Amino acid sequence: MEHARLLVLDNALDHDYYRPVEHWAAAAGFAPEAIHAAGGQALPDPSSHSHVIVSGSEGSITERAAWAEDEARWLAEAIRAGAAVLGSCWGHQLIALALAGPGAVRRSATPEFGWLAVLVDDPGGLLPGAGFSSFASHFDEVVPGCHPDCRALASTPACRVQAMRWSEQPVWGIQAHPEVDADTGRGFLEGARHRWPQHAALFEAGLAGPVVDTGSVRSLVSRFLRAGPLAG
C-alpha cells in the first residue's frame, strides 16, 4: 500500500471530544496526512492525493458552515481528478452533497445511536459480503434515490442508505462508524448526553443496547487503499 498517498479530511469540531485521524490511522496501520478544514487549514491541490478519507463531524450536514461548503466543492474536484474516496457518517453525507447537491441529504426521521447490524445487499468492491456490525451515531442521512449514480449497497431498518458507491467510481460512503471501537463509541455516547441533553434519551438507548462490532474496518480500509484511483 506504499503507492497510496492518503489524506484524511478531519471534520471534527472539538478534538477533546472527537479525534478521527487517530481512528483512521489505527485502521490503516500508518499515519496519514491530514487537513483540518474546520479549524481553518487550507485544502491542498485536489489532484495531490490518490486516496481521501472524509471523516465524520459533530455538525449537521443540513446546517453547513462555509468551510464545509468549500470542502464539498474541493471533494467534487478531487473525485473528478480521479481520487479514490471513502466517507464515514458526515463524510458519507458530504460525498452525496458534493456530487448530487443539497437535495441528496436530509434530517433523518429515525436517527441511529449505538451498535447496528448492517445488511449488505451489494459489497460494491468494498464491504464484507456477509454484512457487518459497528458503531453508529447520526441524525442526518443520504436520501435514497438522490442521484442515478448513487448505488445503495447496504441498509438497516432505520436507514436505507447505510453504504453507497458512486456508479463504478472508487467512491464510497458508509453511514456507520466502523473505525470507532467499542470503548470510544461508549465514550462518545456518554459525552453526548451532556453536550446535547435534549437528545439524552437517544444516547442512553444506544448505551443500553448490545455492543457488537465485527471488527471489519482494517480489511475495509485495506480494500479501499488497493482500489483506484482512476486516471485523471
- Kindly state the percentage of residues in helix: 25-40%
CATH homology group: Class I glutamine amidotransferase (GATase) domain
Could you spell the SSE succession in H and E letters? EHEEHEHEEEEEHHH
Radius of gyration: 16 Å
Q: What is the first-to-last residue Cα distance?
A: 20 Å
Q: Whole-number average pLDDT? A: 96
| Unreliable sequence segments | none
Q: How big a fraction of the residues is strand?
A: 25-35%
Structural class: alpha/beta
**Strand order within the widest beta sheet:** 2-1-3-4-9-8-7-5-6
CATH class: Alpha Beta
**Strand tally, please?**
9
Q: Rough shape?
A: globular
Number of alpha- plus pi-helical segments: 6
**Which fold name is given in CATH as the topology?**
Rossmann fold
Specify the CATH architecture.
3-Layer(aba) Sandwich
* Largest sheet properties: 9 strands, mixed
Element layout with pairings:
Layout: E1 6-9, H1 20-28, E2 33-35, E3 51-54, H2 66-80, E4 84-88, H3 90-100, E5 105-120, E6 132-142, E7 150-156, E8 159-166, E9 171-174, H4 182-195, H5 200-208, H6 217-226
Parallel strand pairs: 1-2, 1-3, 3-4, 4-9
Antiparallel strand pairs: 5-6, 5-7, 7-8, 8-9
